[in-house]
Amino acid sequence: MLYALQQTLNALQLGSIYALIALGYTLVYSILRMINFAHGDLFMVGAFACFAAATFFELPFAATLLLSMTCTAVLGAALERLAYRPLRDAPRVSAVITALGCGIFLEHFVLWLSPYPQHVPALLQNQTWSVSGLSVSSIQMAIVAVALALMFALDFIVQRTMLGLAMRAISIDLKTVALMGVPVNLVISSTFAMGAALGGAAGVLYSLAYPVVDPYMGVLMGWKAFIAAVIGGIGHVRGAVLGGFLLGAVEIFVTVVLPSTYRDLTVFTLLLTLLIFRPHGFLGRPALQKV
Amino acid sequence: MPIPQRETRARWSHRWRLPLLLGGGLVLSYLLPHFALLSPYVQLLVVSVGINIILTTSLNLVNGYMGEFSVGHAGFMAIGAYAAAVMTVNVLPYGAAAPWLFPLAIVAGGLAAALLGCAIALLSFKTRGDYLAIVTLAFLMIVKSTLENVDAVGGARGFLGIERLTTLPWVLAWSAATVWVIRNLVHSRYGRDIQAVRDDEIAANQTGVDTRRAKVLAFSVSSFFAGVAGGLYAHHLQFINPRMFDIVKSTDMLVIVDLQHHSPLGFSGAFPPVPLGV
Q1: Interchain pair B149, A230: CB under 8 A
Q2: Domains of chain A and any CATH numbers
Q3: DSSP H or E run through A38
Q4: Is residue B149 situated within a structural domain?
């Protein structure tokens, strides 16, 4: 029982990172119906910004987090402006290929800056408390707390502000909303910036828990977070959070039972089965097909 | 009468141009390496160009003509590579007979891949668009992780001890066969069904096109040739490893197919494929 609780804590830690990245995919998808495959690499850039801030400027945790989020937000908005906006009316495959290309560009740009895996210095003092046999570390608490705070902030923005209203409206019908005088480009840019900032925050939290960063770390994390977004129903903000925590739980509990080399196998098999029986994720609604 | 004569002559040359080119190419592809007229590097390049032609032509059948976004092509290629390698290393006899039994191994690789292609086609009945892309992605990851966990084929270390059986004539013959089969398929009745799925699946279904049959056909033919390419690849490099067949490999193929769509040589789903090789 204690062991299961301990693993649940680990699952929460991993799941909150997945959920943060998945939110970036889902935000962009809900607005542009486009999968931003460079998002995993924005997560990587966030982790590297965290490394740079902590190593060269020796900033405290909060400042590092803020700096990384700003960096990735600017980068995300720039990607949208330079790479995706000219392609908004192009066939969707072109946008997907461009996104993959942007991801490869980011990986190799960072590879050029820092060819070796880097060690991130400890940003927080790691204390471990024992609560009736259950060991809880301060890092674990910080990860889950920051992730949850960001998720609530995002949910507030999407549900309660004018910007969120514009985002939700664009996700229903981009062309009509543009006619209503909503600054569509501005809203899309800020959506990209928000998604990227969440990815950057996930990068910082990830390097708190696993303090080695390398330029290719975003690829697999990105794909897995994408799966989390799909599990919850892509384009659905709360679904992405649900999917992230579910995926984290599955990954942790699979390695409890099976050898860790079977982890990816099990996760992807589960995804395939889910897609067969529930093709639109848990919270997504099937789109109507019209001729 | 002079006019019909000229017509028949024109038809004759038109008719025999392709077989002559292919036959000449085959002879050349045998002679050039045989007399060491081609540097090994150029040979390597030509072989990978040929393998890429097979891969992209077959991927184009699903992504271009059928309009479904599949990213699992590297998975089919991996299945073909491993199945063919198991055939030549463990099943078929070594030695002098091996080069003659090589096509058997390649076909076995292709069939194994085609079988899984059928399975993916069955999944594509329920999911389409982005979700089908995710299904193919999951398929790719499952293939890769399964291969990493099967010790009989070397697991994550990779499969060693494959004979070098892929020669230039074989690559040429297989890529010509791929282009020929897929071209004829696309221009056949079945091919029109496949293109109808791209243009409007529901409308096609309403007008009596068997879209399920079209999907199964497109996926199995496409994955058959991906498996063939995998078999050739394995017997070209003499070493395969699950990590070779990851999402990056699929991305490469997608980029080649996509570039070809944007090239001045063609439009969406156009033929012939531009042999961008490296």
Answers
A1: no
A2: 2-118+138-277 (1.10.3470)
A3: none
A4: yes
Q: How many CB pairs under 8 A join A and B?
A: 72
Share of chain A above pLDDT 70, in %: 98
In this prediction, residue B278 has a pLDDT band, given cuts at 50, 70 and 90, of very low
- The complex scores an ipTM of 0.72
Asked if the Cβ–Cβ distance from A262 to B255 is below 8 Å, we say: no
Answer whether A234 sits within 8 Å of B135, measured CB to CB.
Answer: no
- Residue bearing the bigger pLDDT, B15 or B165: B165
**In-domain check, residue B124:** yes
Query: What is the overall mean pLDDT for chain B?
Result: 80
**Separation CA B85–CA B80 (nearest Å):** 8
- Nearest beta carbon to residue A268 from set B141, B149, B202: B141
Residues of A in contact with B149 (CB under 8 A): 261-262, 265
**How far apart, in whole angstroms, are the C-alpha atoms of residue A155 and residue A237?**
8
- Does A256 touch chain B if contact means CB atoms closer than 8 Å? no
**Reported pTM:** 0.80
Question: Can you tell me whether residue A131 is helix, strand or coil?
Answer: strand
> How close does chain A come to B77, measured CA to CA in Å?
18
Number of domains in chain B: 1
pLDDT in tens, A219-251: 889 988 988 888 888 888 888 999 999 999 988
How close A278 gets to chain B, by Cα (Å)? 9
- B5 in a structural domain: no
Per-window interface: A 22-51 vs B, CB < 8 A: 35
Cβ within 8 Å, pair B145-A262: yes
Q: Determine the structural domain holding residue B151 and report its residue range.
A: 43-262
- Model confidence at A120, in pLDDT bands (50, 70, 90)? confident
Least confident of A53-67, B143-157, B214-228: B143-157
Q: Do A100 and B134 touch (CB under 8 A)?
A: no
Residue B273 covered by a domain:
no
